[in-house]
Amino acid sequence: MTRRFGLTDAQWAVLEPLLPAGKRPGRPSKWTNRRLIDGIQWRVRIGAP
Q1: pLDDT above 80: residue 19
Q2: Which candidate, 5, 9, 14, places its Cα nearest to that of 46?
Q3: What share of the chain is helix, strand, coil (3-state, %, to 5)?
Q4: Theoretical Cys-Cys bridge with 11: which of 2, 7, 24, 42, CB 3.0 to 4.6 Å?
Q5: How far is CA 17 from the centre of its chain?
Q6: Nearest C-alpha neighbor of 12 from the set 30, 29, 37
Q7: Residue 43 CB coordination number (10 Å)
Q8: Taking the CB of residue 33, how many other CB atoms lie within 10 A of it?
Q9: Average pLDDT value over all residues in the chain
């Protein structure tokens, strides 16, 4: 599901290969890379501290 200001699937397909792969053993990350990028975009757009 893409929100109003979220990345489209086509944009994500271009960006995803550029991100580093997770190499840590153990528990998987709580957040997906896509959610992290959406959160960063939100903070930049809104100007949240």
Answers
A1: yes
A2: 5
A3: 50, 0, 50
A4: 7
A5: 12
A6: 37
A7: 11
A8: 15
A9: 83
